Amino acid sequence: MDIAVQPSVSWMEMNASIEDSGLFFPVDPGPPAKVGGMIATNCSGTNAVRYGTMKDWIVNLTVVLADGRIIKTRKRPRKSSAGYNLNGLFTGSEGTLGFVTEATLKLATIPEQTGVAVTTFSTMRDAATAAIQVVHAGIPVGAVEILDDVQMDVVNQMGGTGRQWKAAPTLFFKFSGSGLSVQDNIDGVRAIVLHNGGSNFEVEQDKAKQEALWSARKQALWSMMCMRETGSEVWSTDVAVPLSRVPELVEISKRDLDDLGLFGSMLGHIGDGNFHETILFDGDRERGLVSKCVHDMVRRALEMEGTCTGEHGVGLGKKEFMVDEVGEGSLQVMKTVKTALDPHWLMNPGKIFDLHNPASHK
Amino acid sequence: MDIAVQPSVSWMEMNASIEDSGLFFPVDPGPPAKVGGMIATNCSGTNAVRYGTMKDWIVNLTVVLADGRIIKTRKRPRKSSAGYNLNGLFTGSEGTLGFVTEATLKLATIPEQTGVAVTTFSTMRDAATAAIQVVHAGIPVGAVEILDDVQMDVVNQMGGTGRQWKAAPTLFFKFSGSGLSVQDNIDGVRAIVLHNGGSNFEVEQDKAKQEALWSARKQALWSMMCMRETGSEVWSTDVAVPLSRVPELVEISKRDLDDLGLFGSMLGHIGDGNFHETILFDGDRERGLVSKCVHDMVRRALEMEGTCTGEHGVGLGKKEFMVDEVGEGSLQVMKTVKTALDPHWLMNPGKIFDLHNPASHK
C-alpha cells in the first residue's frame, strides 16, 4: 500500500496507472500538479477533509541537501517514532531545505461506493454554516466545497459542463465508503442542509452522472481563467481559519469584493476552514485595489487566528505575513533550521522568508 | 473543535471532562499517558489505524527553547502551508529540541454508533493475514489489535475480565460511525475473518457489553505486569514494518521467543504494522537472553524496511539502531537541527542520539 515515485510524476497519471491495484493516492490538488510541487507546498485539495494533507501521506523522501549529500529520511514503515520527523520538515519547506528526488507515498483503498451531492443556498453564510455543521456532526464526507454565485455564473457563461446551474451560493459534497454508509452519510448531510435553508439537493451515485454533477466544481478555476480578456490578469489566493470563524470570513470577504467593485469569485475547501478568492482584473488599472483586497483578506484571517495560506504556500507573495502569523520567535527557529542545513542559502533562496540580518538568525 | 491544554494533563481525564461537548481526543496510548509525553514520543495507540498518530492532532505548540525564548508554533488553523512544519518537528523530538508548555489539539466528533468484535485463529500468521486484508479492503475499522495465545492465557490467569478466553491468537476490532456503516463494516470484517479460518466471531454493540468484550485487550499489559514475581522484570518493546511483512514478522518473532525459552507475549496495533513484545524474565539470569531477543526483533524489522519503534520512541534503549534505520546522512541532519536549536545540548541530553564528534555535526 505504498508507491515510490520521482518528483515530476503527475498525481493524476500516477492514479490512472495504478487503478487496477484497487488503490489510489487521495491527495487531489489541481490537475497539473506534480508530486515534487505537492511535497514542496504541503498541498491538499478537495479530499483533505477526509484524507488529510500531503504530509500525512509521506512514507519517506530522498533529498539532495545543499552540500550535495543525499539522504533518505527513513525506511518503509507506515508510522514511526524513531528520531525527528524529517518527512514533516521537508514537506512544505518549498524547496528551501533540499531537493526531493524521490518519494514513497502511502496509498489508500478505492472506496466500494461513491456519491456526489449539490445544493444551493440564499447566502454564503448559510452555506458555510451548513458545511461546518456537517463536519461538526462527524459525518465522514469525502469532500465539502463551497462556491459562490459569481463562480457558478462564470461556469454557466463558459458553458463547459453541458448544463446551466443556479447562480447561487452552492455546496458540493463527495461521499465514499460501503454502500450502506454512503446512504447514511447522504441522509445525514441532506438533513443538515435542509435545516439551514438549502434547496435543490441533487444526489448522484451512478459514476458518469457523479462526474457530470461534480463538473461545475472541477471547472471552476478554468472557467474563471477563460473569462480573461486582453490585459486582464488573475490573482488567486487562499487562507484558512478555525472552523467556527469560516461563515464570518466568507461573508465579510464577499462584501469586501463587492464594495471595492472587483470581479472575483469565491471557492473553498470549507471543511478544513480553507478558502480561496480568484480575482479577475485589469492589470494596469486595478492592481492596487486587488492587492488591498487580498491583503485585507489575509489580515482578517490572521486576526481570526488563521493562516495566510492553507495550501498554496508562502513563496514570494506572502513573506510579509510570516511574522504576524507565527511570531518572531517561530520565524527565527525556521531561519535557524534553514541556516543550519543550508548555510549559504542556496536552496530556492528568497522563498518563505529573507535573511535580513545574518547576525540574528541563530 | 480544538482544545488548549498543558503538558501534564491526562488524555483520559481530558476526554472525561469534555464528554458533554460531543467531542473527544482520539489518540489513545496507555491510560497513564499525559499530553506532554504523548507529544514527546509522537505516540499512537489502538485508534491510530483510523485516526493517525499524535502529530496529526496538533494545531499549535508553545515551546520553551534551550536559550529561554518562548515560541508558539502557529495560530489556530486546522491546516496551514505557511513556513516549516514546526508542529511536526517538535512532536516526536522526545524533549530534545524544547520544552512544550502548552498544546492546542484538534478534537474529533464522538461517533454515533460503536461496536466491538473478537475472533480467534489457529495461528498468528492467519490472524495477522486477516487483519492486513481488512486494512487493504479499506474497511474503516476503529481499531484492529492482535494478541497471541500467551497474552490471552495471562489475561485468563490474572482473572481481571470476569470471563475465560480461548488461549489462542486473537483479533480485537473496534467499529464506529453511523448505524448502518457500523453494520456494513462488521459484515465486511466477518467475511474476511471467516475466509482466513477465524472462528468464535463475537460482536457487541451495547455499550457495557462492548467494554466487557474489549476488556481483555485493555488489561493485556496490566495482566502481564501482575505476573511478575520477586526478582522478575518486564521488557516491553515495539517495532513497525510495512503491512505486507507483518504476518512474517509476527510468525518469526513468536518462534524466536519459544526457541530462546523466554516467557513473553505478543500484541500489536496490527493495522499500522506496529507490533509489541512484552517479556517477563529473571533479572539476574535472563537479561542477556532477553536483550538478544529484542535486538533480533529490531534487526529483523529493519531488514524488512521497518522502524525500531512505531510509537514508544528511541530514548536511551534504541539509540544504537538509529544509523541503520535512517542512515548516516539523515542522522547527521537530525544532529544539525539539534545543535542549531540547542548548541549546548541542554534539552534532554543523551536521548535519541549522542554527539560523538562535535566537529562532525554540521
UniProtKB/TrEMBL annotation, chains A, B:
Named cofactor requirement(s): FAD
Gene Ontology process terms (BP): lactate catabolic process
Domain of life: Eukaryota
Residues in the signal sequence: none
TM annotation in the entry: none
Single GO MF annotation: D-lactate dehydrogenase (NAD+) activity
This protein's UniProt keywords: FAD, Flavoprotein, Mitochondrion, Oxidoreductase, Transit peptide
Record EC number: 1.1.2.4
PROSITE patterns with a match to the protein in the record: FAD_PCMH
Family: Belongs to the FAD-binding oxidoreductase/transferase type 4 family.
Protein name: D-lactate dehydrogenase (cytochrome)
Species of provenance: Aspergillus puulaauensis
